[in-house]
Inverse folding.
């Protein structure tokens, strides 16, 4: 059926034009200075030095990483029990709950984030409920709490689904073997279930951390105009101040930081000594 | 009969790997041809070239005298029954069979008529509406055959079509395929690695190996007169013995002369002699043309596969001196040292060097506290190329020393004239602990005794298959033990209906026409 | 005893999970029917925000653009993605590996990086930002998902199936259409569904590559959210409704089909 091979050709051309070229453009812009004339092109590292030496940008970068890490950690500790509980239910119940968790992810992220704007207001339902308990009102909107909440809300389904898949794919006979060998429930969870579901956690981390670092509408909607993360800086450089070279450099730096974190995460996963965490 | 298909010097190259190395083959009308060979021999590749799914690198395929290499599969008058059937899972039985006819846009009533006829041919009349995924392997197989035959091809290609079926069903389908082929009267080209299938169904068998045709012939030709050892082995389990063709109709093997029906070999040409297990009979020892001992009996469902050893292999017995562990202890230097006597063959004296001496004497020195090895600095010895005891002294830098004997002997080999084999092994010394600790004792014994066997004809090494010893390796105590090494003897497989016991002394007999002489393959 | 405790714990956990995921969605739907402007106090049922929404031409335009782009991007990416996946399944391993790697880039990259890449690419070509750039960008990020969902179906296919069709006289196009495509239909449908929702919901990439007043719903929500505008609630409710209907259709149709199929046999 070699004649079918040719059917992939148009897309291969498209792929080079629409995927590879734009990536190359980012690199080109990141390493050149302004004045986008092919004739006077000049390579420079200045965009990077400017970014990494500026205190304001560095604090934005730190905050972005901090928020992403916190979001990821919360997603793990929230997602794991949920996935675990669902994975241990009957077949029908599993299907129902997974559908229930998947459904919101199909709905526009922006719309779902927007919904929290009302809920978190000083006069919103949370504070209204707290009022009954005699607490509050607590300011939640335009705080770090709101940003992290928005991110967790949007990204935790990815974590749940990844861990759930890892848990259900796991051979149940491992657990039987463990209990046969005298492990109690806690021991067999720590020594069998947890290590075997770790790959699910790892891919969950990838799926949460990546959008969390680069998100820019969640901080804007829930953090307010003053809450700036790295994504917002990139947005400003491209759509307001128009310094594409600098914006490209920041994007590239961010992409590299993400790649490094992913690499470290995978490495930790593969490191056999790291599996002794249950000790 | 008319030549329908001609393969002319077909070569197929997959990324630099030659899968077909120049195939020339003619296939006639109404023939049932089987391409037989082990996996990877190129048989399926050849079939796919004929089907149009692959294009040969070189050569021509003629169909009815016309070159068809450029004709796409959907324009060829050839249909295929695929491995695992490749039925369309989203269609029912009827639609699967009707697929080709619908593509050709035949009128509906004709399609219906033809499909019904096919369903009848393959005994699936009641299954027309059945979903193909809900059918058994045998039924799917029939659908696949019907789907191909309904297009009235002049050739049907079958690619290991029975491979996925169980034994009983396979036998049934073999009969049925042959019946169908006779009924529709077209050429079947059948690919299989199962020689039994090939023998029962085919008019012509093409035996292939590594992209080359080995032999073409009728089943009886192939079975009775395999052209070489590969074909003989592949077509059925056989006894293959080295022999010499003395003259026409007379062959010698196992040092005896036997009448045979083969001729046309050069005088004293070395040949392979093939005798099939079912052609050999076990008779009382006195009546046997060959005599031997039953070595193993295996029940094969309908018969016993009895193995008779007509001659044991070459063997050699050596002495193993087991000693206690008593290393020399040098208190002042805090060193321990040990070594043992060892035997040497006269011929080895010339090539003797210090490394060999250390290894054979197993000389070692160590610090008893840390267990670290101390290197041996000096080796003092003098040796002559004649029998006798020669002392050798090992010493370390700290002055610890041990003296042992090198015992040179010249009676370390056995020559087996009949087999043209020579066997070498020497007596050896070992400590009881080393025997206790050995995890692969037979291999270790071979190493310790320096045992090796080789053919006197061409010097190639002969495998030592038997190691016998009369001690219990777990509990062996100091003393002298015998170890016997032996090579494989001549063995014959015989299919018998009677059960013999292992150890029975029997005779073997056969008729001149049961002996098949083959060109020696090298 | 222990078992009961864990099941109580799991019930509470799952209950809270459901509340967490669905309260915001229900909140939007509820407040879209609010009679006042307030986003926090429900003061009575009314349809005034829906009336306002339908009267608002920018909103209606955004809805139209969103649907048109999503439909076009889905059709194009499903066709191209399916053909590419089939082509790749018959290609050499190396070619397949390279294409799969590059194909994964838009999925693995942060959306904002893909977005600025496209932005600069379009401007380098001198293409005016607007409907065309939006459509091209959507097609670009949808195709990889189609390929990803079709490829596993192709892998589990009997490799001889296409050969069998050719053998029975079908041309390559007929083999494709009558044998391969029906076999991988579930993968194509789920690919199309993913493509549709990805396009329909996309914000980041659209936000960067569009211009000339061509907006989709997400961009509108983003730009309008700065001021209180309950019409956004109405619009969001519309989006939720539409996606839910699409998901229901996709999930329910196969069940109905299966039931019908059972009746026939």
């Amino acid at each position: 059926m070699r004649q079918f091979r040719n059917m992939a050709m148009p897309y291969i051309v498209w792929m080079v034009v629409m995927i590879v070229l734009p990536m190359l453009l980012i690199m080109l812009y990141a390493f050149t200075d302004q004045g986008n004339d092919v004739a006077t092109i000049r390579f420079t590292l200045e965009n990077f030095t400017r970014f990494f030496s500026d205190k304001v940008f560095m604090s934005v970068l730190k905050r972005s990483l901090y928020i992403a890490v916190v979001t990821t950690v919360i997603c793990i500790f929230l997602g794991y029990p949920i996935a675990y509980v669902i994975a241990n239910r009957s077949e029908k119940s599993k299907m129902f709950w997974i559908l229930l968790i998947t459904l919101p992810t199909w709905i526009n992220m922006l719309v779902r984030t927007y919904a929290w704007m009302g809920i978190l207001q000083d006069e919103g339902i949370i504070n209204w409920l707290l009022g009954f308990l005699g607490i509050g009102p607590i300011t939640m909107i335009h705080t770090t709490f709101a940003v992290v909440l928005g991110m967790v809300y949007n990204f935790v389904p990815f974590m749940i689904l990844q861990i759930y898949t890892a848990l259900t794919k796991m051979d149940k006979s491992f657990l039987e073997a463990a209990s046969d060998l005298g492990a109690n429930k806690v021991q067999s969870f720590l020594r069998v279930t947890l290590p075997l579901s770790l790959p699910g956690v790892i891919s969950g981390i990838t799926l949460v951390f990546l959008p969390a670092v680069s998100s820019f509408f969640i901080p804007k909607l829930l953090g307010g105009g003053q809450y700036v993360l790295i994504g917002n800086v990139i947005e400003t450089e491209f759509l307001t101040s128009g310094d594409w070279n600098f914006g490209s450099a920041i994007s590239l730096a961010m992409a590299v930081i993400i790649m490094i974190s992913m690499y470290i995460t995978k490495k930790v996963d593969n490191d056999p000594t790291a599996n002794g965490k249950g000790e | 009969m008319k030549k329908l298909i001609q393969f002319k010097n077909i070569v197929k190259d997959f990324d630099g790997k030659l899968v077909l190395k120049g195939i020339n083959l003619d296939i006639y009308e109404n023939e049932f041809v089987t391409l037989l060979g082990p996996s990877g021999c190129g048989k399926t590749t050849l079939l796919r070239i004929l089907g149009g799914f692959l294009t040969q690198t070189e050569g021509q395929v003629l169909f009815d005298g016309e070159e068809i290499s450029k004709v796409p599969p959907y324009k060829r008058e050839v249909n295929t029954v695929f491995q695992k059937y490749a039925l369309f899972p989203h269609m029912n039985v009827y639609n699967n069979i009707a697929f080709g006819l619908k593509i050709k846009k035949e009128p509906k009533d004709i399609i219906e008529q033809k499909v019904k006829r096919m369903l009848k041919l393959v005994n699936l009349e009641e299954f027309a509406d059945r979903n193909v995924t809900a059918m058994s392997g045998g039924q799917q197989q029939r659908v696949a055959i019907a789907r191909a035959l309904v297009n009235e091809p002049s050739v049907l290609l079958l690619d290991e079509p029975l491979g996925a079926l169980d034994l009983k069903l396979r036998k049934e389908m073999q009969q049925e395929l042959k019946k169908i082929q006779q009924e529709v009267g077209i050429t079947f080209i059948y690919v299989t690695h199962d020689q039994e299938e090939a023998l029962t169904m085919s008019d012509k068998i093409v035996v292939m190996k590594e992209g080359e045709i080995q032999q073409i012939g009728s089943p009886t030709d192939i079975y009775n007169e395999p052209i070489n050892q590969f074909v003989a082995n592949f077509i059925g389990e056989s006894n293959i013995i080295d022999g010499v063709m003395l003259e026409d109709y007379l062959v010698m093997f196992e040092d005896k002369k036997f009448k045979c029906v083969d001729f046309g070999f050069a005088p004293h040409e070395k040949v392979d002699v093939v005798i099939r297990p079912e052609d050999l009979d076990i008779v009382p020892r006195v009546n046997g043309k060959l005599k031997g001992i039953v070595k193993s009996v295996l029940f094969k469902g309908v018969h016993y596969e009895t193995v008779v050893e007509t001659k044991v292999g070459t063997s050699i017995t050596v002495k193993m001196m087991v000693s206690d562990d008593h290393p020399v202890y040098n208190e002042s230097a805090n060193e321990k040292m040990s070594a043992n006597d060892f035997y040497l063959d006269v011929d080895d004296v010339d090539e003797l060097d210090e490394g060999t001496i250390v290894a054979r004497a197993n000389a070692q020195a160590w610090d008893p506290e840390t267990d670290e090895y101390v290197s041996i600095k000096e080796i003092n010895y003098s040796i002559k190329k004649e029998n006798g005891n020669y002392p050798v002294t090992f010493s370390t830098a700290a002055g610890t020393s041990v003296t042992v004997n090198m015992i040179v002997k010249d009676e370390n080999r056995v020559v087996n004239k009949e087999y043209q084999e020579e066997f070498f092994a020497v007596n050896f010394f070992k400590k009881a602990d080393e025997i206790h600790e050995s995890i692969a004792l037979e291999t270790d014994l071979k190493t310790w005794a320096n045992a090796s066997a080789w053919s006197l004809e061409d010097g190639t090494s002969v495998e030592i298959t038997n190691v016998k010893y009369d001690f219990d390796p777990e509990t062996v105590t100091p003393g002298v033990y015998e170890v016997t090494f032996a090579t494989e003897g001549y063995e014959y497989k015989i299919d018998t209906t009677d059960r013999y016991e292992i150890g029975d002394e029997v005779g073997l007999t056969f008729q001149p026409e049961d002996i098949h002489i083959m060109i020696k393959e090298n | 005893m222990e078992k009961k405790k864990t099941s109580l714990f799991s019930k509470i956990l799952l209950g809270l999970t459901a509340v967490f995921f669905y309260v915001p969605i229900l909140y939007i739907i509820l407040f879209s029917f609010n009679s006042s402007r307030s986003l926090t106090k429900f003061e009575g049922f009314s349809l005034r925000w829906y009336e306002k929404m339908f009267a608002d031409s920018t909103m209606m335009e955004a809805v139209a653009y969103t649907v048109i782009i999503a439909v076009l991007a889905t059709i194009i990416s499903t066709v191209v993605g399916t053909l590419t996946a089939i082509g790749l399944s018959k290609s050499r391993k190396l070619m397949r590996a390279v294409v799969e790697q590059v194909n994964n880039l838009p999925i693995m990259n942060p959306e904002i990086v893909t977005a600025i890449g496209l932005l600069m690419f379009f401007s380098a070509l001198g293409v005016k930002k607007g409907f065309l750039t939006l459509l091209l960008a959507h097609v670009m990020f949808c195709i990889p998902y189609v390929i990803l969902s079709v490829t596993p179906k192709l892998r589990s296919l009997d490799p001889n199936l296409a050969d069998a069709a050719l053998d029975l006289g079908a041309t390559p196009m007929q083999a494709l259409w009558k044998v391969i495509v029906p076999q991988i239909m579930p993968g194509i449908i789920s690919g199309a569904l993913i493509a549709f929702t990805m396009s329909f919901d996309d914000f980041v990439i659209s936000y960067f590559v569009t211009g000339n007043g061509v907006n989709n719903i997400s961009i509108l929500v983003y730009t309008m959210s700065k001021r209180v505008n309950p019409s956004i609630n109405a619009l969001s409710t519309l989006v939720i409704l539409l996606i839910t209907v699409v998901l229901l259709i996709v999930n329910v149709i196969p069940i109905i089909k299966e039931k019908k199929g059972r009746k026939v046999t």
